[in-house]
Structure formats: structure tokens, C-alpha cells
Design goal:
The chain is α/β, with parallel strands linked by helices. It contains 20 helices and 39 strands. Helices cover about 25% and strands about 30% of the residues. It has a seven-stranded parallel sheet with strand order 7-10-6-13-15-16-25, with helices on both faces. It is globular and about 95 Å long. The structure holds 2-acetamido-2-deoxy-beta-D-glucopyranose (NAG) (9 copies).
Length: about 775
Amino acid sequence: MATRRNVLLHKLWICFITFLYFSTESLSQTDNYIVHMDLSVMPKIFAGQHQWYLSTLASVSDVAGIGTASVATFTASSKLLYSYTHVVNGFSASLTPSELEALKKSPGYISSIKDLPVKHDTTHSPKYLGLTPQSPVWKASNYGDGIVIGLVDTGAWPESESYNDHGMPEIPATWRGECEAGAQFTSSLCNKKLIGARFFNKGLIAKQPNVTISMNSTRDTDGHGTHTSSTAAGNYVEGASYFGYSKGTASGVAPRAHVAMYKALWDEGSSATDIIAAIDQAISDGVDVLSISLGKDGLPLNEDPIALATFAAMEKNIFVSTSAGNEGPIHATLHNGIPWVLTVAAGTLDREFDAVLTLGNGISIAGSSFYLGSSSFSEVPIVFMDGCHIAREMIKIGPKIVVCQGAFDSNDLSDQIENVSSANVTAGVFITNFTDTEGFISNGFPVVIVSLKDGKTIIDYIKNSNSPQASAEFRKTNLGIKPAPRVTSFSSRGPSASCPLVMKPDIMAPGSLILAAWPQNIAVGLNKSQPLFSNFNILSGTSMACPHAAGVAALLRKAHPDWSPAAIRSAMVTTADTTDNSMEPIKDIGFGNRIYPASPLDMGAGQVNPNNALDPGLIYDVNSTDYVRLLCATNFTEKQIQVITGSSSTDCSNPSNDLNYPSFIAYFNEKNSPSNLTILREFHRTVTNVGEGICSYTASVTPMSGLKVNVMPDKLAFKTKYEKLSYKLTIEGPALLDEKVTFGFLVWADSGGKYVVRSPIVATSLSPELSRKK
Ligand SMILES: *[C@@H]1O[C@H](CO)[C@@H](O)[C@H](O)[C@H]1NC(C)=O
Ligand SMILES: *[C@@H]1O[C@H](CO)[C@@H](O)[C@H](O)[C@H]1NC(C)=O
Ligand SMILES: *[C@@H]1O[C@H](CO)[C@@H](O)[C@H](O)[C@H]1NC(C)=O
Ligand SMILES: *[C@@H]1O[C@H](CO)[C@@H](O)[C@H](O)[C@H]1NC(C)=O
Ligand SMILES: *[C@@H]1O[C@H](CO)[C@@H](O)[C@H](O)[C@H]1NC(C)=O
Ligand SMILES: *[C@@H]1O[C@H](CO)[C@@H](O)[C@H](O)[C@H]1NC(C)=O
Ligand SMILES: *[C@@H]1O[C@H](CO)[C@@H](O)[C@H](O)[C@H]1NC(C)=O
Ligand SMILES: *[C@@H]1O[C@H](CO)[C@@H](O)[C@H](O)[C@H]1NC(C)=O
Ligand SMILES: *[C@@H]1O[C@H](CO)[C@@H](O)[C@H](O)[C@H]1NC(C)=O
């Protein structure tokens, strides 16, 4: 029956195309819209919402008045991109302006947003979280055994060794996902590691009707999705390395968790309608954790596809990890500052890629380098060129190592490197006190960056030698680098402009020079002009930090199946490390390696510590009602809130701008106020005892200059496990704070000395505002 119908439809389709041929103007003006509908007014005659949406589209179609009813119905089904089930009450469709206007007058129409492209969060292409076989969290969670991590990304390269299913548990009986066949992808390519593979591109194709999809399947032709998914849950691969850098056994954070890939980012572009459809499907399929290393800057919550789609995920108890973005180090640049997800900043590892220079006098000096060409060269003449600015002189040097100094910031350094690398010399040694050098060392030209002190040794040698020369060895990996972690400069900073009431980012995870799986047929770099291929690649970005946190969430989900997503987030936040491996406060690389400690607007509560998060003592729980109360306290209309929550009614009888969040942000930003005016900011929190039954906690607050912080009561005595107790925190300060950002920490410590439950407190004079960016 279906087949016959298709033949009929096919004929109608031809008519339709003929018709369109004469109305290319309206076709060229079509755009994709995500349309929210009020399900409560759906007429009873419809079997379900899908039929209702089709009928609504048929009635507004531009061809409705011209063709027969079946033409209109067929046109409607070609206009409808997706009927959403969980994440949105509504659908997405490709509409002309007049169709959109007609739709706005249809019964049940609430609102619509125009489609947007969304980008993944990797910057430059160039285990350290305490996870060892002995670590409590791997033991308690059995390495994330049986948890399903879904990723919305560029796809998966199923042949990667990181997706081998050796030692993997059976696919969960509750799993409803699929391994969809497509171009160069059969359903037999999935296994007990990669258990789901689906792809979404209807929205992209509707927006670019002439586009050719080069790989119409879940197969990854970019590499990003293979990298992020293996970071979260890759299986063990022995002998992994990147041309000798970072050698060892590779594994994801939750090596026994399953991976489900939802490809919605394409080489040809992306569409929010596809991303929402991917998340909708992941919810239907039954993922436990979602890792979303993408986002869109400058959107209010009610227009942000990630915010809309993840509210339903949270309601279904799915933990969502997202990337903060790579627009740092300027404040209020982060995206995904959404109250019901985890927002992850990127930090450095304690690992450095080096070259070792050995001078003619035998002295060896290490400097950062990430050169992929020859692994060494010996006894090359070395010359000192000071500023390396005169391109004419540089060209005449020939096959020598050139030493440059005087670069104090990224512009100087990139000028020097450009001059030297275009001069056909053997190698360049750059002396600088600038330490945010990650973006300069990933290079097809041998760049070695050394400190001022080592630089002086090199210059002294050159000046005192008749025929100075040096040898170099590349591809050295140094572990145990101090200090680490540090906040990367690219990691986007809080506060969240889309929801300033909630302190973001939440946490930091490794996102700098991360080694993970890579498609073998996608070049990772060039050696001279020859493409280089590898099964692993080293990438940086909050895209790389997000799946680390998703992996940790998978371990916690397994160890504590009864915890809500907010409880898991709370455990990660309140147990994060605030000190680095020198036992100093974590630093921010920020603008040229500031010596100041990183603030919570840079790193959230600190570096995620999976073993501590397993047993946090207390948790700050939040449920969907609490998020709605928060939305009610902002300036969203009830309809806008319904768009976010996907609910057909909103109870705003009890608004609250005070979410039970494990961190605090207070604004002292009232400009034009009398200078002696002080204001009081008040926060109420409720903690649940998930540690020992009987226990008591005492509060302490680190001093914050110019502010009075008070906790009432400052003792909490629990009699039973799961008991909830409340307290109030107040911050009194000037109406307009002098400092942009002042911060401290509230610590609840138990009398047994076992638990330290730490919450960051930020006081700021900033007024984050949404600035829309492409
Ligand atoms: C799509 O292709 C048609 C036919 O080749 C052409 O007329 C039209 O301009 C193209 N549209 C775009 C947006 O490139
Ligand atoms: C991509 O594959 C799907 C499913 O196999 C198919 O329905 C669709 O028409 C294909 N799209 C393109 C552009 O080839
Ligand atoms: C790059 O090419 C050189 C020869 O020109 C070779 O010695 C070196 O091993 C190559 N590097 C890689 C990573 O293949
Ligand atoms: C070399 O340095 C000079 C002076 O800083 C600069 O003007 C020029 O653009 C540089 N050339 C290259 C190729 O970077
Ligand atoms: C670069 O230097 C090598 C020898 O060091 C020489 O053979 C080659 O021709 C030079 N290339 C250019 C573009 O000057
Ligand atoms: C680097 O040295 C220059 C010149 O001495 C100085 O102005 C600058 O502040 C230094 N930068 C850092 C990050 O130490
Ligand atoms: C959320 O928690 C509050 C108490 O904090 C409770 O009153 C409310 O019923 C809960 N809502 C849901 C949906 O569980
Ligand atoms: C809500 O709107 C009022 C009046 O327009 C404004 O004063 C207030 O700052 C707004 N609040 C937020 C959270 O945007
Ligand atoms: C603040 O300053 C104004 C003007 O200097 C003064 O009239 C007022 O009494 C002061 N208020 C307080 C609370 O000190």
C-alpha cells in the first residue's frame, strides 16, 4: 500500500517541481524555522502531533490554493524537516516568508526561531585526572560499565582501534538506538563499543538545496567526533602515539561505557534543526549522558537550540556536558551558559612537547616544540639575529639555526616565526617570556621556544664561540610539567550572558593538546608539502574538555544510579581541585601568563577530580520545577518559558532567582549609585547528606576584599543519610564594586575530616549582555 502511494506521490512531485520552476523567487527565499506549537489546542481528530503539523503546513503552503489537496499535503511533507518528540512541542520546516506569516495565524502557533549554523569548539590543531586501575572511581563504577554516552558531533570513524569492543559488556537491553546504514557505512560496523550511529542533515539540505553531501552517513570525514567520543569512552589502545609524541596506552575516561554517535555537523555546514533532531533521537534511544562539544554565541535561552533541546534531556535524567567555547580570555564570552547543563572550561595538562637543543659546548636546553618533520639534525651552524625582523637579511642566512629574541606577546612571536619560517633556514629558536605558546608550536617548520634564562645561555655561547653550532632532537614528551593545570587562554569566560544568575563555567577539564583517536584517512598535518596520516591526533579546545567531563559523569552515573543530573554536577563542582601540582592556586594563562590565580569565571570550581566526586559528602540538588521557577524570575514571558521547557503550561506562581546551585555569583554593578551605598545579596541553599548518616559540618569562607560574607547557620548537623538542611549566604558590598571580579570559596567541612564541600563565590561589577555574533 505504501508503495502505491509513493508512486502517486512521485507523480505529484513532478507536478510540484514544474510548478516551482516558475516560482524560484519564493524558493530562494525559503528558510528553516523551528516552530513551537501549543499541543493543548490540537484538534482531537488528529491521530498524533505529526499529522497535526502536516495538516497545519498543508493549510499554509504557498501552493495550497493552486494544486489539489493532495498536492498541498505532499508539499507539506516535503516542507516538514522534523517532527520533534521530546525536546520541542513542535517541528522544523522550510518555509517561504508568506508561509511563515500564514503559519503565525494558525491555531496553536506559539513562536518560531530561524535556523542557525552551529560550530564545534576546537581551536588550533596541534591522564592526568587521577584515573588509574587502583582509583576508587574506576573501581566503584567498573570503568563506566554499560553506561551509554551519546555525542552530537561530526560522526565516527568506526575502524578506529579506540572503538574495539574487547572486554565490553553486552549492549543494554533497554537500548533503542540503531546503527544506520549509509554511504560507506553498514550497520555491521557497530559493535559493543560503538552501539549507535545515526545522521541528521535534512535541515542542512533544505537550507542549501544544491549542496552535495560528500559522506551521507555517520562516517566521520572531519575527525572531531572520533576524537571527542574516544576521549569520553574510547577502549584501551596500546602503543598509541602521534609521531612519537605522547606515547602510551590510550583510553577514554570511561573505557567500559558504550558510544552512540549522532552526526549533525557536516563538512558542508550545519543546521540547528538537525542538532535538535539529533538530541531528540538520543533521548528516544536511551542515552545516559550527552556530550555536546558545540554551541552558538550570543543567543538568549529561548532561542538557543542547545538550551531548548537539553531541557527535555535533563527531565529524562540524562546528564548533559557542554563546551564553554573558545572565545577567551575576555569575560562574558562563554556559550552554553545554561542552568541545566554542565559547562566545561579547558585547562592544560602537565605535559609538554619539547625539542632538545645541544650546543657545541655540550650544554643541552629543552624548549617547546611540536615539529613533525625529521626527528633530529646534528651540528648545524647557529646564528643570533636579535629581533628577526628584517626579512631581507633572513633570506641570506641559508641552512642555519636562527636565534631570535624580543618577542613579548603573541603578535611579536607570530611575526618572528613567520619571518624565520619563510626564510628557508634550518630551524628557529625563539626566546620569550610569553608562555601561551601552544598555538605556535604546532608547526611544519622546526620552531623551538625557550625561556629568557635558557635564551641567555644560548646567546652567550654563540657570542663566545668561533664557529657556533647546535644539534636538535624533536618529538620529546615531558610529563610532570609545573604548574599544571592552568586555564588556557582560549577557554571562554563567564559570566553567562544568557543566564547571569548562574555562575558559569562550572568546571575545568583537560582541553589542551589532547591525544585521541583520529580517522586514518584524514591528514593531521603536512611534512613539507606531503600530507601526514595517523590513527591519533592531538587537538586543543573546550571541545576536548567537554567529553572528559562527560566521561566522569558516566562513571558517577554508574556508581550512583539514583543521582539526578544536578546531583552529579554538584558532586563534580564541590570536589574540584583549586590548586595545581605545585600546591598553588590554579593560574590563568590568560593575557600573556598573568601571575594572578584563575577566577571561577575562568575555570569554574576548578579542575574536575573524579575520585573525589565519587563521594562528595553533600550535594546541591535541583529539579525541573526549580529551573522553571528560575526562568519565571527572569524577563521571559510564559510563552517563551514554554518554548524552553516544551511544556504546554507554565506555573509561575512561585518565581525564584535563587537556584539551588553549588556556586554563587553576586552582581555589584549599579552604576551612578551614591558611592557610600551598600547593598546586600542573599542566597538560600539546601544540601542533601549523601555521606555518612550522622555527621556535622562547619562553614568557612575565604575573605573577599571589600565585602562582608556571612553564612547562617554556620553549622549543619545531620542525623540521617539523605537528610536535607538549608542555610543562607549573604554578601554585603558597595553598589558598584571597584574590582571587575572578586572571588572566594565557601567550604563546608565535616567534623570527621573526611569531606570538604567547596563552592566558588564570585562578586563582580560586570554587566554581562548578549552580543549576537555570527
Ligand atoms: C542551484 O542550482 C540551480 C540549477 O543549477 C541554480 O539555478 C541555482 O542558482 C542554484 N542555487 C544556489 C543557491 O546556488
Ligand atoms: C542520505 O541517506 C538517507 C538515508 O539513507 C536518504 O534518505 C537521503 O536521501 C540521503 N541524502 C542524500 C543527500 O543523499
Ligand atoms: C618528514 O620527512 C622527512 C624527510 O623529508 C622524514 O625524515 C621524516 O621522518 C618525515 N616525518 C614524518 C612524521 O613522517
Ligand atoms: C618580518 O618582520 C617585519 C618587521 O616586523 C615585518 O614588517 C614583516 O611583515 C615580517 N615578514 C614576515 C614575512 O612576517
Ligand atoms: C632552501 O635551501 C636549500 C638548501 O639549504 C636549497 O637547496 C633550496 O633551493 C632553498 N630554497 C629556496 C626557495 O630558496
Ligand atoms: C616580558 O618581558 C617584558 C620586557 O622585559 C616585560 O615588559 C613583560 O611584562 C614581560 N611579560 C611577562 C608575561 O612576564
Ligand atoms: C522539586 O523539588 C521541590 C522541593 O525542592 C518539590 O517541591 C517539587 O515537587 C519537585 N518537583 C519535581 C518535578 O519533582
Ligand atoms: C527585566 O525587565 C525590567 C524592566 O524592563 C528591567 O528593569 C530588569 O533589569 C529586567 N531583568 C532582567 C533580569 O533582565
Ligand atoms: C551617603 O552620603 C551622602 C552624601 O555624601 C550622605 O548624605 C548620606 O548620609 C550617606 N549615607 C550613609 C548611609 O552614610
